[in-house]
Design brief:
The complex is a heterodimer of chains A (314) and B (205). With 314 residues, chain A is α/β, with parallel strands linked by helices. Chain A has seven helices and 14 strands. Chain A is globular and about 40 Å long. In chain B, 51% of the residues lie in helices and 9% in strands.
């Protein structure tokens, strides 16, 4: 009993400093605004409190949609679980017409692709467009040749200014629990580089980490929107900023050639923020069905990024 | 060495390579093995396996009748209902199914070779790392019974998937413990198990 009381008190202390949250994203006219959450579906207090902070953020920064980086529903998958681990914590956002786009994690089941509130269109992997941005949701649990062929064709045919990929397993991570998925990196990164993907989001490690651009690509790990592994970050040469003492989510805004990000903790603290600028590299379109050899040279399509942190806390 | 001699040697080398004699001379790679590793050779080795998987797929298609579709915009209740009703029909239709119905001994050998081929050289450590990072599990699974939904699905290394034959939609490979498992992801039923397919698999939790 005393243990439960201590837990409740500790929880209260942690969530008490609900300081007036000030979101500094520019909110430019016509910009694409979204949130990013990963490893969210625990159904536990941490998820609910982080979701509530996301609700507060939405009041100041009315994002239209949210990307889910997998492990959307941990444990059993009954309708009650879908309610407890997704529908209830995000109800205020769902009521406000926020659309969630899910990718599958290793704790998910493939049939989540049919779940209407995950907007996967009945597919394990899919793409969608918002403004001048094309998003690619991948299934990194099962990167079979069919999926790679689909991704290659999609990237070849995309003429969008911004290309953003999201999936569960991180290509770069300095967390102790899992770390970088090297095999997947060897397969996906050459495609991302060749076809000018600028930003990649992953989860799996229950921390927040932003990498220095690798081969012109900005990588984020956001696996702490409902689970947390405190102190799990080791740090690596590629780590630009990390945070592993509380749960987080990321807010994103894309205005023309600039992508602004702000990472916010469960207690409302901004733990990272900055701007990613897309290079003005001229892009050449590639006819549908072209083989890899027919694509323009790497320099022509690789947009590249420049990341400028606004303010970061160490 | 004169230009004529160089040309003659080059021609001999080309002929030797074209006839496959080069491999025979070295004695390292029998011609049969080369044939098996070609796409046609691999297809032939997995033909029986794929025939049996396709037979399962046909059965599943035939049993979908009368079951409400989950579709692309289903509620959690609809997904569960579809999965459970389909699983019940398949369990009944395959009530005599047993381990090895699909992974017959010849197919097991083909998979073992494919795993060995993928797992050799520079890819070996990366494949093992992928499996470990995917939170591998060791649990008892049963043919024609559901894969427990509380248990994470193990990541199947992409390199392995490039060496395995392509499966019909909504049937996937799983690695569970040291075993290779075929799962029907629509009904969540375990279709078949190849025990010990990964004898040197990394440790499982």
């Amino acid at each position: 009993m005393s243990r439960i009381l201590i837990r409740i008190l500790f929880g209260a202390i942690l969530v008490l400093p609900a300081a007036a949250q000030k979101i500094t994203l520019p909110q430019a006219k016509g910009s694409v605004r979204f949130a990013v959450i990963g490893d969210s579906g625990s159904g536990e207090r941490l998820q609910y409190e982080t979701a509530d902070r996301l609700r507060l953020a939405h009041q100041q920064f009315p994002f239209e949609f949210a990307l889910m980086l997998g492990d959307n529903i941990y444990g059993s998958k009954t309708p009650r679980d879908f309610a407890k681990k997704f529908e209830l914590p995000y109800k205020p956002l769902l009521d406000n017409k926020v659309t969630f786009y899910a990718s599958l994690g290793n704790h998910d089941v493939p049939e989540e692709q049919s779940y209407k509130l995950f907007n996967m269109g009945g597919q394990r992997y899919y793409s969608f467009k918002r403004g001048n941005v094309r998003f690619f949701a991948l299934d990194s649990n099962y990167m079979d040749p069919d999926q790679l062929a689909w991704l290659t064709a999609q990237l070849q045919n995309s003429t969008d200014d911004w290309k953003i990929a999201f999936f569960h397993h991180p290509l770069y991570s300095s967390a102790r629990a899992h770390g970088s998925s090297l095999e997947l990196r060897g397969i996906l990164e050459p495609l991302f580089e060749k076809y000018g993907v600028q930003v990649v989001f992953s989860g799996h490690d229950h921390v927040y980490e932003r990498m220095t651009p690798q081969k012109g690509i900005a990588y984020f790990t956001e696996g702490s929107s409902g689970q947390l592994r405190p102190g799990d970050i080791r740090g690596a040469a590629f780590t630009a900023k990390s945070f592993d003492t509380d749960c987080t989510f990321i807010l994103m805004e894309i205005a023309q050639n600039d992508l602004y990000f702000e990472t916010i903790s469960r207690t409302g603290e901004t733990v990272d923020s900055g701007k990613i600028t897309r290079s003005e590299a001229k892009k050449e379109t590639v006819p549908a069905g072209s083989s890899l050899q027919q694509t323009p040279s790497r320099g022509a399509v690789s947009a590249g990024v420049q990341v400028l942190p606004n303010r970061t806390r160490q | 060495m004169s230009a004529v001699t160089r040309s003659w040697l080059a021609c001999c080398t080309l002929l030797l390579l074209a006839s496959g004699a080069g491999e025979a001379v070295s004695g390292e790679t029998p011609a049969g093995a080369v044939q098996e590793k070609s796409p046609d050779g691999m297809r032939a080795r997995f033909k029986e396996f794929l025939d049996r998987v396709n037979e399962y797929d046909k059965l599943r298609n035939s049993l979908r009748g009368g079951i409400p579709e989950a579709g692309k915009k289903a509620t959690a209740e609809q997904i569960q209902k579809h999965q459970e009703m389909l699983a019940a029909k398949i369990e009944e239709a395959r009530k005599d199914a047993k381990q090895g119905d699909i992974f017959i001994p010849d197919s097991q050998k083909a998979f073992r070779d494919a795993i060995g081929s993928a797992h050799s050289g520079k890819h070996a450590r990366k494949i093992d790392r992928t499996i470990v990072q995917g939170e591998p599990v060791k649990l008892d699974l049963y043919i024609n019974k559901p894969y427990p939904d509380k248990i994470p699905v193990t990541t199947v290394p992409p390199t392995l998937l490039q060496h395995f034959p392509k499966l019909p939609k909504k049937i996937e490979y799983r690695i569970v413990g040291d075993d290779l498992v075929l799962e029907d992801t629509e009904s969540r039923l375990v279709i078949d198990i190849f025990p010990g397919a990964f004898p040197n698999a990394p440790p499982r939790t």
